Amino acid sequence: MNPNASAAAVPAIGAEQFTFLVDMIPQLVWVTDAAGFHIYFNQRWIDFTGCTLADSVGPDMWNNLLHPDDRARARDVWGHSLATGDNYGIEYRFRAADGSYRWFLGQARPWHDAQGALTTWFGTCTDIHDQKLVAEQLQSSYADLEAKVTFRNLELEHQVQDLQQQLAAR
């Protein structure tokens, strides 16, 4: 059985329909060959990055658009997937056309031919920037609350000690 087959029958679609579909969904969509050479990006990718399709293809262009702090980790994770055929998954920041960075969840799965050879990677990048900001705000609020609770506990401890000393003095 083809490892790429799904349980439900899916009608074959042409290139025009494929492009329509991947331009409609709210993700950046990309395709590479088996070696990780990017061969396709959807219109959302072009709109977000400001890079043309011709500027976007190749093995390294992708990493150059990542936040500098995410590049080495992204290269390692992608390299692992390429070497092993394992599904790809990572959170990283991409530079937008305006120079700002946004967090994305990058995911890809390999496609195998009828003989089982990995031939293509199909991937998406889902914008998770707002969720990451909320998570950071929650973490910061939690840390602030922890500090306030610790301070209040120390205050109460001192008050208890003062009361114990007053009782002992009587």
Please render the helix and strand layout as text.
Blueprint: H1 15-24, E1 28-33, E2 38-41, H2 43-49, H3 53-56, H4 61-64, H5 71-84, E3 88-95, E4 101-112, E5 118-127, H6 129-169
Please provide a written account of the structure.
- The chain contains 6 helices and 5 strands, in the order αββααααβββα.
- The chain has helices spanning 15-24, 43-49, 53-56, 61-64, 71-84, 129-169, and strands at 28-33, 38-41, 88-95, 101-112, 118-127.
- A 5-stranded antiparallel β-sheet has the order 2-1-5-4-3, with helices on both faces.
- The protein is elongated and about 90 Å long.
Which key terms come to mind for this protein?
single chain, 170 residues, alpha+beta, 6 helices, 5 strands, 47% helix
Gist?
The protein is α+β, with helices and mostly antiparallel strands.
Mean pLDDT: 88
Q: Indicate the multimeric state.
A: single chain
β-strand percent reads 15-25%
Coarse shape: elongated
Distance between the termini: 87 Å
| Total number of strands | 5
Q: H/E series, N to C? A: HEEHHHHEEEH
Structural class: alpha+beta
